[in-house]
Amino acid sequence: MRASLLQLSVDSSETAEDRRLRAAAKVRDRAGDDLVVLPELWTAGAWAYDDWEREAEPLDGPTAAAMSDAARAAGVWLHAGSIVERDAGGTLYNTALLFDRDGSLRGHYRKIHRYGFDTGEAVAMGGGNDVVTVATEFGGLGLAICYDIRFPELFRGLLDVGAELIVLPAAWPAKRLAHLQLLVRARAVEEQVFLLACDATGTHGGMQQAGHSMIVDPWGTVVADAGDGERTVTADVDMAEVTRIRTELPVLRDRVLGIPAPVPH
């Protein structure tokens, strides 16, 4: 399975529509790949809180339409990063979209863990409730977004509903790049999955984003790293490695569930 991460520059000098057109062209250029991934909130900007109301859209809005067409034109599975979704009741969500080779929306995930510590996403958006894995011809594909990576229980939940690879769009701050690199490798090792983390680059809403999109295998090896700046990183992913490593080091069978809460003394 050939996967490409499109590490877009998300910059306040470019409109959301211009970035949508540019991203769609980049996806079309990836014909021959199996899976293409975009970053978190790349249309509105993950750090441009004041723009979210204006750029919010429904699941079948302009970003979904453009990405559906691009996936179909390239013949790829497309994880279109995430959008600012507005539901029928007006609530905003940070929502990931996954399209198949025909351009059909095969799954969406509303981010469960909202970043901001009583500001930004934490107060402006609703939180999701569902752990989402989508069946593909190359294995169960689990969905998570950025800040989710700090919460291992979600990734264990994805494992329990069949994830063999997990895709993480992100808009991670450059000043905490080391945390992203550590956590992505840790989650891949814990769940014995391939983990594809597609991060944004550029400055938006006053925040420099980290870049360094990564493809990490179930052994925790970094197969590909995009480095700084806008670029595409591509790697051939052998999904048979998931079964091989889970057999060679069968730690998942030794999980102990239902550990009782500690009793205070």
TrEMBL record:
Residue stretches making up the CN hydrolase domain: 1-239
Keywords assigned by UniProt, alphabetized: Hydrolase
SUPFAM superfamilies: Carbon-nitrogen hydrolase
PROSITE patterns xref list: CN_HYDROLASE (PS50263), UPF0012 (PS01227)
Any GO molecular function: hydrolase activity
Family recorded in the similarity comment: Belongs to the carbon-nitrogen hydrolase superfamily. NIT1/NIT2 family.
Protein name from the UniProt record: Carbon-nitrogen family hydrolase
Origin species: Streptomyces cadmiisoli
